[in-house]
Amino acid sequence: MAETTATPVTRSLIAPARYVQGRGVLADLGSYVAPIGSAPLVLTDAVVRRMTEATVTESFRRAGLPVRFEEFGGTPTAAEARRVAETVAEHGCDVVVGLGGGATIDTAKAAGDEAGVRWVSVPTVASTDAPTSALSVVYTEEGAFESYRFYTRNPDLVLVDTQLVADAPVRFLVSGIGDALATWIEARAAQRASGPTMAGGLATHAGIALARLSWDVLWENALPAVEAVRRNLVTPAVEAVVEANTLLSGMGFESGGLAAAHAIHDGLTAVPHTHHLAHGEKVNIGSITQLVLEAAPSAEIREFVEFTARLGLPTTLTEAGLGDVDEEVLRTVVEAATAPEETIHNLPFPVVAEDVLDALTSVEALGRSVRAEAGLPEPQAPEQHRVKVPTARMA
Ligand SMILES: [Zn+2]
């Protein structure tokens, strides 16, 4: 037999060591952290700290843990991660608890990795699928995507208090749904291309199944969950969506594979016009663009656009602040989205920048026509549609 030098095909799945979700579970944080470390540092912002400090302090006291809060600077930059890592070392902490949104959690992971200690994710919103993964997204001071940073392990614990999620503005949950719906769209494409996952190697059946399950759970539960969270209610639909946005989407994207939707998102962060949008809102523009680019059946694309418009996600360039911009601006987006290291190259065909540009441009008319057909209001440009969100930590 001829000798082969080909690298053997590997498949892998990675996961957080423990996932805990439930109403009021923040009160038990201390007992879950105690087996992981004896000197925690809680990274959070002032708004989240005000909401959670009494509960966290009491739960740590009951578990015999000291409590030390550190204020998050607001943007998950490399410099901010270094600063927090230095604080961890200075105080001899042995576990970093990221308490808040995706940006806080990404910084807690980066700081834990740099300081050589373990880390824990405590999302207070279900706005992204950042909490479970072994990677962070690093942004520039201006909020533009800079790079992915990969770690050797996932968080030792992900703990989600569903009452906190239900008490937060509904836009956070909606954004998380946008992020999570992309998971299956991207994993499906990456699988067709036998593309690598963020976990390394090819996807397992388990990784693909989690991505698909996230999609199914959301189509069934997203609309009632959004209605419930508008009233700060924790219903079974809310529990289902929180799990889909956080655990299923988190493991599904990491071990199932990313493709165009997140690359388009990254491209959108390269222009200031879109900075009013949350992560999952930009991802939704990316999902629609990917569906167009990969020639998904028209009925499927229109159904997706209508569903996400009903949820309150942006489905037109107008809502993304790109309704009447020069083509140069869209070219900047596409150039960043098609950079050689981008996950868009996981699509099962060669990606040509002109094709991506035309797919992105087509989103405007597509979104408008679906909205009109469904009897939904005309899309609004950012000045009118922007919802005031108490904390800006939505990356
Ligand atoms: Zn995402």
UniProtKB/TrEMBL annotation:
<protein>
    <recommendedName>
        <fullName>Glycerol dehydrogenase</fullName>
        <ecNumber>1.1.1.6</ecNumber>
    </recommendedName>
</protein>
<feature type="region of interest" description="Disordered">
    <location>
        <begin position="374"/>
        <end position="395"/>
    </location>
</feature>
<dbReference type="InterPro" id="IPR001670">
    <property type="entry name" value="ADH_Fe/GldA"/>
</dbReference>
<keyword id="KW-0560">Oxidoreductase</keyword>
<dbReference type="Pfam" id="PF00465">
    <property type="entry name" value="Fe-ADH"/>
</dbReference>
<comment type="pathway">
    <text>Polyol metabolism; glycerol fermentation; glycerone phosphate from glycerol (oxidative route): step 1/2.</text>
</comment>
<comment type="similarity">
    <text>Belongs to the iron-containing alcohol dehydrogenase family.</text>
</comment>
<keyword id="KW-0520">NAD</keyword>
<keyword id="KW-0479">Metal-binding</keyword>
<dbReference type="InterPro" id="IPR016205">
    <property type="entry name" value="Glycerol_DH"/>
</dbReference>
<feature type="domain" description="Alcohol dehydrogenase iron-type/glycerol dehydrogenase GldA">
    <location>
        <begin position="16"/>
        <end position="162"/>
    </location>
</feature>
<dbReference type="InterPro" id="IPR018211">
    <property type="entry name" value="ADH_Fe_CS"/>
</dbReference>
